[in-house]
Amino acid sequence: MLDKHLYSFFDYLTYEKRYSSHTVTSYKNDLSQFITYLNPHQEDLNIAEINYQQIRAWVSVLIKNKISARSVNRKLSSLKSFFKFLQRIQVIEVNPMSKISGPKTPKRLPVFVDEHQMEDLFTEIAFEEGFNGVRDKLILDLFYQTGIRRSELTHLKEVDVDLFNSTIKVLGKRNKERIIPISLSLKRNLESYLRVKQELNLSNIMLLVSEKGHTLSDQSVYRSVKKYLSQVTTIQKKSPHILRHTFATHLLNNGADINAVKDLLGHANLSATQIYTHNTIEKLKKSYKQAHPRGE
C-alpha cells in the first residue's frame, strides 16, 4: 500500500507539478531514506500510524550523523510535500509534519559570475566547431539573458520562440506561463542555431537537441555549462542555476526594478527575489570602502 501511494505521489510531482526529473529523484531519495529508517527490515508499514515523534527522531539521527542543516531541511520539505499529498487524497487526516520545524540554516548569498567574466565567456572563449558549439553558446546565452531554470530550458519548444516579437514563452513551476523578452544579440544566436538545425534536418519539435536530433537531457545541459564556465571563473559550483543567480544579480546591480526581476524569474512572491538584493548591498559596501576617504 505504501508503494502505491509513493508511485502516485511521484506521478503527481512529475505530471501535475511538472517538477524536473532531477527534483523528483531528490524526493525519491529523501523519502526512501526516511522509510528505511522507520522500516529497516522491510516489514508492513502503516503509513497512517507515522507520527511526529518518529520524524523528530529521524531528524536527530541526521544531525548526529553531521548532515548539514540545509540538507535536513530539504529532506523535511520532501516529507512535508508527501504528507500534504496524502491529506489531499484522504489517506491521512492529521499531518505529522505540522509539529515539525527544521534546524536553522545560516543565510548564504547567492553565488554568481562577475560581469567581466560573462563578457569574456561570449567574446574571448572559443566554442566547439559545428552544431554543438552553436547550440552550447545558445544554451549559455539563454540562461544568462533570461534567467530560466534548467528544466524550463530543456522543455522549450521551437514554437515557444517568437522571433518577430523578440520573446520566448516559458512554462514554469505550477504550470505558470511567463513571457520573457530577448535581446537583439540573443535573437541572432537563436536565428543562427535554428538555421543550422534546419540545415542538418534535425526535425525535433524541442528547441534544443543533440547533433543526432534527440532532445537534450538535463545532464547534457549541465555538462555544457560546466565546461564553458570553467574557462572563465574559479567559483566552486558551475551550474545552470549559477547563471540564474548571475542573471538576477546583474539586473539588480544595474538598477532593474525588483518586481520586474521577480516576474522574469517566475517567483511566486517577492521574498524569493529579495535574496539577490544582498549582493547589491555588498557591492555598495565595497564601492563605499574603496571610494570614501574614511571608508575603511
Please tell me about this protein's structure.
This protein is mainly alpha-helical and 296 residues long. It folds into two domains: 2-99, Orthogonal Bundle (DNA polymerase, domain 1); 115-289, Intergrase catalytic core (hpI Integrase, Chain A). It contains 13 helices and three strands, in the order H-H-H-H-H-H-H-E-E-E-H-H-H-H-H-H. It has helices at 2-16, 21-38, 52-64, 69-88, 115-123, 131-146, 150-154, 184-199, 218-229, 240-253, 258-265, 270-274, 277-291; strands at 161-162, 167-171, 177-181. A three-stranded antiparallel β-sheet has the order 1-2-3, with no helix packed on it. The chain is globular and about 60 Å long. The chain starts with a helix and ends in a 5-residue tail after the last helix.
Quote the average pLDDT.
90
Beta content comes to under 5%
* Unreliable runs: none
Helix content: 55-70%
Number of strands: 3
From the alpha carbons, calculate the radius of gyration and give it in angstroms.
22 Å
CATH superfamily of the largest domain: Intergrase catalytic core
Number of helices: 13
Q: Could you say how many structural domains there are in total?
A: 2
Give a brief description.
With 296 residues, the chain is mostly helical. The protein has helices spanning 2-16, 21-38, 52-64, 69-88, 115-123, 131-146, 150-154, 184-199, 218-229, 240-253, 258-265, 270-274, 277-291, and strands at residues 161-162, 167-171, 177-181. It folds into two domains: 2-99, Tyrosine recombinase, N-terminal domain (DNA polymerase, domain 1); 115-289, Orthogonal Bundle (hpI Integrase, Chain A), CATH 1.10.443.10.
